[in-house]
Amino acid sequence: MKHNRTTGNTSLAPHARRSNWSSNPWIIPAMLPADLDWSGSGNHTATGPENLGADIHEDADHYYVCMEVPGIKRQDLAIELKDRMLTVSGQRFWKRGEGEAGQPFSRTVALPTSIVWEKITARLEDGMLTITLPKAEHIKPRIIPLT
After folding, report:
1. 64: number of Cβ within 10 Å
2. Do the beta carbons of residue 141 and residue 60 sit within 8 Å?
3. Across the 147 residues of the chain, what is the mean pLDDT of every consecutive 10-residue run?
4. What predicted TM-score, i.e. pTM, was given to this entire model?
5. Could you tell me the residue range of the domain that residue 60 belongs to?
6. N or C, where is the chain less crowded by C-beta within 10 Å?
7. Domain SHSP, which positions (predicted)?
8. Which CATH number fits the domain that encloses residue 77?
9. Domain count along the chain
């Protein structure tokens, strides 16, 4: 998967939006995928010093949630799915004097109902967390042959 990132709150792909779009008045909510609610209505939350941004995009078969989590170890991350809400949480640690300090973070996003829940996968590679959410067959595009 290619991460073609641009600056600011703009897209990765035609349907992708930075999830903190509500702070940017130039992003038009109607351009977002219909079943992903980024309206600022409370269906997504973020806590922590960086407000853990999430890039969301899709292709014909999957939705993708990508988060930059540099320096965070696999064992310090937790991913939970409950009632269509996907939560990524964890703890960021750094050296402080003789010891270690830490800061918890959390990011929750509302998911569409059209996902094959049992086949969701997550991968952490080079500070990039990628969660792959397969689309249900009934929403994938189909070519209807003419007879």
Report:
1. 19
2. yes
3. 38 40 42 43 48 82 91 92 90 80 87 88 95 88 86
4. 0.61
5. 37-139
6. C
7. 45-147
8. 2.60.40.790
9. 1
Residue 125's SS3 state is strand
Cα–Cα distances (Å) from 62 to 6, 58, 106, in that order, read 21, 6, 23
CB 87, CB 48: distance < 8 Å: no
Give the CA-trace dihedral at 53, 49, 46, 128, to 10 degrees.
30
Residues sharing a CB contact under 8 Å with residue 128, sequence separation 6 or more, in sequence order:
3, 66, 67, 68, 69
Q: Phi and psi for 139 in degrees, rounded to 5?
A: -110, -5
Amino acid at 29: P
17 in a structural domain: no
Read off the amino acid at residue 53. Answer: G
Tokens 């009632």 -> residue = 83
